[in-house]
Amino acid sequence: MGKLSRRQFIAGAGASSLGVILGGCAKKEGSEEVTASEDLMREHGILRRALFIYSEAALRLRNDSSSVSPASLQKTARLFCDFGEEYHEKKLEEAYIFPAVKNAGGEAANYPDILITQHQRGREITDYILELTQGTKLEANNTKPLALALESLARMYRPHAAREDTIVFPAWKQILTAKQLDEMNEKFEDIEHQQFGEDGFEKVEADK
Ligand SMILES: [Fe+2]
Ligand SMILES: [Fe+2]
Q1: How far is the CA of 145 from the centre of ligand 2 (A)?
Q2: Overall pTM surpassing 0.70 (yes/no)
Q3: CA-CA distance, 180 to 190, in Å (whole number)?
Q4: Measured in whole angstroms, how far is the alpha carbon of residue 115 from the centre of its chain?
Q5: pLDDT over threshold 70, residue 157
Q6: Per-domain residue ranges for the chain?
Q7: Contact (CB, 8 A) for 94 and 116
Q8: Domain spanning 6-207 has what CATH number?
Q9: What percent of the chain is helix, strand and coil (3-state, nearest 5)?
Q10: What is the whole-number distance in angstroms between the Cα of residue 101 and the centre of ligand 2?
């Protein structure tokens, strides 16, 4: 599966409506301090916009499938994979947040296993979406399965992100001391730069 940097994704998508929707939610850094848990929630904002595109596309696939561009869905699914699954889920949630929340016990500790299962299911659905949207035209017998896949991912991921925002991230924040939280902010920033280059989102926005 090919990899797109954040910069390439936003720059490449600039001319499409998808680019306008997703590029418009790029985060601003530098002028204000963004804490690690705020950062994670902003990332959910980007993923929610992708889910919005999925839901719209599913509706159109059922009404007039010729109005759906497979290239645009392919681009959105790639963003979901590169940004959501490979970075947000694997590098942050599964590497740092879930283990800490599980270790700490309490009600929130019940969630990480369920959330990881949902991550895995989501990756299978994303692979399927990528597979069905490869060509320049959608195959007629693929439109219904594609609509179902888009809807099922959106239906699973919306409550998934909401549980993280309202239960798991707040629990994680409570576990850490102020010093540890500062360290995590820096660590997350380093991971983001490793993954997407030193410029982050700010320069990408300026280059558009
Ligand atoms: Fe997650
Ligand atoms: Fe998440």
Answers
A1: 26
A2: yes
A3: 15
A4: 14
A5: yes
A6: 6-207
A7: yes
A8: 1.20.120.520
A9: 80, 0, 20
A10: 14
| Percent of the chain residues past pLDDT 70, beyond the cut | 79
Residue tagged 């530098």 (tokens): 30
**Other C-beta atoms lying within 10 Å of the C-beta of residue 12:** 14
CA of 204 to the centre of ligand 2 (A): 23
Q: Which residue do the tokens 């497979």 mark? A: 70
pLDDT in tens, 10-55: 333 333 444 444 444 344 444 456 788 898 999 999 999 999 999 9
The string of pLDDT tens digits covering residues 181-193 is: 999 999 998 998 8
Give the closest residue to 142 by CA, choosing from 55, 76, 50, 70: 70
113 by Cβ neighbours in 10 Å (0-12 / 13-18 / 19+) ranks as exposed
Tokens of 113: 């296993």
